[in-house]
Amino acid sequence: MNILVTGGAGFIGSHTVVELHNAGHTPIIIDNFDNSEKTALQGIKNIIGKDVKYYEEDCRNQAAVEEIMKSENIDGVIHFAAHKAVGESVQNPIKYYENNLISTLTLLKAMRSQGVKNLVFSSSCTVYGEPDTSPVTEETPRKPATSPYGNTKAMCEDFLRDAIASGEDMRLLSLRYFNPVGAHPSAEIGELPTGVPSNLVPFITQTAAGIREKLTVFGNDYPTADGTNIRDFIHVVDLAKAHVAAFELLATKNEAYYDVFNVGTGEGNTVLQLITAFEKVNNLKLNYELGPRRPGDVEQIYGDVSKAAKLMNWKTEKTLEDSMQDAWRWEKKVRGIEG
Ligand code: WQD
Fold this sequence. Notes:
This protein is α/β, with parallel strands linked by helices.
């Protein structure tokens, strides 16, 4: 199938383009390169051995999206393109609402006008807020988002849900990611955070590379085994494969359909357990200190992923150690560090 991948040059998008190709599909990228690099396109080519067609376009440009859907005979869309920095969204909510909401609405309108019926949406576990218990299932009530970024994810889920409830003849899915980490084992593609990383793993790898002086662990007084937060760290390649499985599930539907799936490992690890895994598998000592809690951090969250296993026939295959090894290999490649 010909699949339009918005944000296909980004971290999760580029890994999904590789897995779509590996599964025999034809991915076509639309990306405005606002928060991604064209080097990712070369990385994808180095992995799959061929160029992936791309359009340097903004998916808020409905006419452009419609033209691409028509000319590329698009069967469906996987929608990654969005601003995703939680902290920045608090500082500049209008930028986040304008981009993340308008892009999704534009895609739905273009799909309607072009008769494209299938869409997989990149949602987030952030819609659960601070859950009362973990693991969270898809029936766990969403909580008010703790950031405008999280709010855009919840609102876009509602766009899809309400479109189907209104009778749109589409097949739509929201995938609620947990914490994507790692990189492609080839070290040809990976995460390229701009500026000081807010996420844990890129901060760890940049500390190990000597770019950051030390990592601060945000709080060790939480009611967990070692006092640090618990998260569900999922390897980005496993996450990419979930999108292929989701798309293939949609292809089996011949009537209006909307559903939501948790996409995680189904296990929780603490921040210190992740650091220990990073040090062990890469045989190095990380320079970190224990510091104060970060405001807004959820104490613990990890996913019950049995629904995806049952209905999408998908589950993770990689371990936390795989993620830490692949993340470090990628950082070393980007920084030109030998060994
Ligand atoms: C993870 C843990 C921090 C940095 C983010 C997005 C969310 C979703 C998942 C996409 C926390 C701790 C971090 C550091 C630390 N993404 N930490 N020192 O906040 O769980 O969620 O990824 O949908 O929307 O916000 O990820 O990597 O920032 O933090 O101790 O320097 O690592 O306290 O416990 P988070 P994160």
